[in-house]
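Predict the 3D structure for this chain.
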Amino acid sequence: MRDLARHTVPDEVFREMAAGGGGAEAVAVLQAAQQSKRLLLLRGVRDLAMRIDPDTARPVRESYDLLASVQRADPAAARAVLGYPTIASSMLRAGMNLSGESPDLDDCADRLGAIAAAAAVRAGFPASVELPVNEGRIVLPSLGVATGAGSGRAVVRSGPAGASVGTVRLPATPYQDGPGWTALPCLAAEHGGARVAFTLDEWDPDRMPGANLAHRPLTKQELAHWRATLVSAWKLLVDRHRAVADEVRSLITALTPLTAPVAGDASATSKEAVGNVGLSTPRDASGLAVTLAHEVQHVKLTALIDIVPLTLPDDGRRYYAPWREDPRPLAGLMQGVYAHLGIAGFWRRERSAQDGDAAGRAQVEFARWRAATARAITTLRESGRLTEAGETFVAGMNRTLQEWCAEPIPAEAEAKAAVAADRHLARWRERTRGEAVAAP
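Done. Predicted structure below.
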């Protein structure tokens, strides 16, 4: 058997990422590794199903073969589906469902069938795939959802003349809505020669595992607000944070609405569905811009850790994170540090781009998050739970923070940031009293 090549991260790319950035070369390295991960998951799930019961797993093999045929006939259509974030999370779930005492081969067949059907529909490739109707719906990953397709099970048919899901005929362009068919909306913006486009996914069951999803789809008015806010946020990012904007448009593929907490906003990424970002309805352009700057750091680090482990296996210890109310495992703290390095950098650049109250806020935010991130870096370095690569990576983050911490900030801003930090620590100590945590 031919040995498979392993993905590696060039030293220069690793150093750039440790400093908080990365650029085009880092994007290419991370994207290539994630695509390989999705392909390996698909192959692994198929192979596992076939080992369990080749006869029962026949639909799994047929869907895998269909996907391979679409890939040969229309690589772009296959790539559009295989690059979608939920492919990884769906196959991970299929693998777990196959690995228990009662392997669920039907679940595996349905998941892989939906992926293959979506690719066939995109390509106009002749195919017929039977899928379950769940709560009156059939979701085709990366494309949309059919409602009123019948009950029990329905057949997805595709070909050069078009496609149907049960009794629902899809529009000639399946990226548009039609009777019984809701396409996943595209949120796009363009400014300064740079275009960003996200799929807004409210339907895929694997879009954001474990997150507090929005309870209902967005209304037309709410969707219009998301679009308008993105246009303004994108202008802000392109004009004042161009490197971040380039990473956002390259690494974030989809957005998923979340339920907002009682106070504040919510955002999240998933290590299972890399490239999808969950967020509550953005209040304004600045808030959306800093959320994207924050979450793209999580996307980068999650993709990097798939190639280069930075922390040792969890030993049960929990640590203080100056941005969370709950104690965090070391790997979670590492994620938070890298994300807040991005947040601190965002507000550092905003200081010189604003005036008046906005400039004052930027000064306070920069002071708050550079200090918090520096403090958490100290916790990482003292934990004794970093890999050799992790030690190098944290040292790179620390060099960036030390440079930023030497930059002057108005005393009033420093004082406000210190008060906020002290209040947070006091609340955390009160909440974790009696717990087995590494006390700051």
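The mean pLDDT is 95.
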